[in-house]
Write a structure and sequence with these properties.
The structure is a single chain. The chain has no helices and eleven strands. By secondary structure, the chain is mainly β. The strands form two sheets. Strands 2, 4, 5, 6, 9, 10 and 11 form a seven-stranded mixed sheet that branches. A four-stranded antiparallel sheet has the order 1-3-8-7, with no helix packed on it. Strand 4 and strand 5 form a beta hairpin. The radius of gyration is 13 Å and the shape is globular.
Length: about 120
């Protein structure tokens, strides 16, 4: 099983940018599709975006499309989430996850390994 650790969260003003990183260990992430989810207080965990094993395919939630970009560096065993034009409604704990297969996945049940999360707070 792969272990995942997120970093890069913090406090940012609306309109600003943050780049989250997800460092993997235990296994190479090149075997897995990877995803990002987020969970705001009192809400269910929601899908943000996903990337296939090669990085050739990406898929995003409508709420972040055009503002967020997922990328991966398999040589560094790391996945990234670049977040631009941040809004207060983007405030949440962001989680990185490894899918159970090499392809795009969007449902929480499709992911077998999760990081501990990193807090992102966007002030208005």
């Amino acid at each position: 099983q792969v272990q995942l650790v997120e970093s890069g969260g913090g406090l940012v003003q609306a309109g600003g940018s943050l780049r989250l990183s997800c460092a993997a260990s235990g296994r190479t992430i090149s075997d897995y599709g990877m995803g990002w989810f987020r969970q705001a207080p009192g809400k269910e965990r929601e899908f943000v975006g996903a990337i296939s094993w090669s990085g050739g395919s990406t898929y995003y939630a409508d709420s972040v499309k055009g503002r967020f970009t997922i990328s991966r560096d398999n040589a560094k065993n790391t996945v990234y989430l670049q977040m631009n034009s941040l809004k207060p409604e983007d405030t949440a704990v962001y989680y990185c996850a490894a899918a159970r297969n090499p392809y795009i996945a969007t449902m929480t049940a499709d992911f077998g390994s999760w990081g501990q999360g990193t807090q992102v707070t966007v002030s208005s």
